[in-house]
Amino acid sequence: MNLFEKYQLGLPYADFISLYANDAHKERWRQVNDQVALTAGQKSLLASFTRKMPVLCLAGAWCGDCINQCPIFEHCAAATSSPSPGGEGLGVRGTDALIQVHYLDRDHHADAQKLLQINAGNRVPVVIFFSEDGFEVARYGERTLSKYRQMMRDQTGPSCPTGIQTPADSLLAQVTQDWLNEFERVQWLLRLSPRLRSLHGD
Question: Second label for 117, Cα 20 to 30 Å away, from 87, 128, 129, 157?
Answer without folding.
Answer: 157
